[in-house]
């Protein structure tokens, strides 16, 4: 058995174990690396019965709230096109609802304080009405807008309506024309088509099944309507990993994955947050982005490790189970342990013209070290204190990329003879010796010097 064969066997075993131990009628999963679906598998049967039809890579499952990430990307495309600003109030684009005072950014990040669910019957199991009906219902403002994270399906119904207002067509048509069609995601649809898994619930105390309803959620559909396959969802994971096919600027994608509001669970450390449409996790210092999804009869998951783009997708047709989350973590672990990414050989690619900037610098009496890492100047250790990387923006100008100095300017100040005198970083002076009297230290240097 080759290494690849052994890895496949381990992945298939992990999938089968999750299906058995989690009592999942059927489950499909895939792994993405370098923008490609490098493994996919299926276990169980669509109807949950022995000998029933098997799941495969072309079987549709409902993705639930992963739908929200498509809506969010379309909103950011409008922002990038100059048609709206994230600081805009919702009412500036869609007047006539109780959500009007909440900003678009707050809706995207679930920080608008908006009610989580509708006032009517359980919307996930009943056909939905139109936007006018939803907008006319009494809206519950649970918290002051901007105060905290509070997940809101109603908020994403509003963002779907925003897309319709700007494009003059249904939100699903916008998602299809702007994202699904150009990405080749032909098996992602608002309602099930072709081969599709039925939504099932498994009894908590017995091995028996219950069929869940399937319907059009109407105005609430942008919160969780889309159906997809493992192959199509893997393409969306590749999008999140950076292969956007030119549909979204890399800087915008990075902005969407920044943690805006932590998910605060009492008594638990902060490991999760929400960005502009994407969920973000910090697992032992490793950043992931993606989204989970659940609707009656279905669970879905998408998670990408941001540092290298390895991703995992899972789809199953059961209403409730903890197995899919553990499965996703296990699949990524198996891939990493058995198929490690190749290590690029070191080579001397540094710019010798920048050597005058490296070495020891002093901010007052504090000492830091400047190094070169590829195209970046690095002060200290990023992630520790005020350590940061800097990208060059001009002959003697740089901009911070990390932590405290993100977006802050760094200037190299020179003497008349062209040699480097000191660094000016967001008004702080870094000198070669502590409080160098020749370096124009703000506030001056005591005439007695060190004594």
Automatic annotation (TrEMBL):
Pfam families assigned: Beta-lactamase, DUF7586
PANTHER family: D-ALANYL-D-ALANINE CARBOXYPEPTIDASE, D-ALANYL-D-ALANINE-CARBOXYPEPTIDASE/ENDOPEPTIDASE AMPH
Protein's UniProt name: Beta-lactamase family protein
Source species, domain of life: Bacteria
Residue span(s) of domain DUF7586: 351-432
Beta-lactamase-related domain location: 12-331
